[in-house]
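User: Let's play a game. I give you a shape written as C-alpha cells, and you guess the letters that built it. Ready? Here's round one.
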C-alpha cells in the first residue's frame, strides 16, 4: 500500500476524489486483512471523467489492486461505488450523495480538509 503522500506523487496532486478512492481501499485492507497484495480484488464504478475517475487512482494506491496485476476492474457509472474482496469476504462502498454534492461546492483544498474531518461511515454507505 502506498502512503497518501506517495499516492499524491503517483496521481500528480492530492484532490478530494483521489482521497475518496484512497480511503475506501485503506478501510478495506484494514478490515479484510489480506495475506498479500495478490489476494485482494477490487471493482470501482464511477463516471469515467475527471474529477470522479481520480478515485480509481486512490483505490489502486491504497489497496494495491492494479491494472497491471489484473485485480481491479473499472466500470462507468453515475455514482462512485467500490467493492473490495478477499477470499469469500467482501466490502461494498457507495459514496453518499450528500458527500458528492458538498464536494461540488468546495474547492480542492476545502474538500480535502472536509473529507479528513469525517468518519468513513459518514462518507460511504458500507455493506
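Assistant: Ready! My guess for every position:
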Amino acid at each position: 500500500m502506498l502512503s497518501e503522500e506517495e499516492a499524491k506523487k503517483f496521481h500528480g496532486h492530492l484532490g478530494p476524489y483521489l482521497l475518496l478512492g484512497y480511503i475506501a481501499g485503506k478501510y478495506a485492507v484494514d478490515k479484510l486483512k489480506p495475506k498479500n497484495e495478490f489476494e485482494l480484488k477490487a471493482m470501482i464504478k464511477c463516471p469515467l471523467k475527471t474529477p470522479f475517475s481520480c478515485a480509481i487512482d486512490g483505490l489502486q494506491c491504497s489497496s494495491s489492486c492494479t491494472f497491471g496485476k489484473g485485480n481491479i476492474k473499472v466500470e462507468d457509472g453515475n455514482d462512485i461505488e467500490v467493492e473490495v474482496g478477499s477470499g469469500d469476504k467482501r466490502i461494498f462502498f457507495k459514496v453518499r450523495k450528500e458527500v458528492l454534492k458538498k464536494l461540488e461546492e468546495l474547492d480542492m483544498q476545502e474538500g480535502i480538509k472536509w473529507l479528513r474531518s469525517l468518519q468513513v461511515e459518514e462518507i460511504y454507505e458500507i455493506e
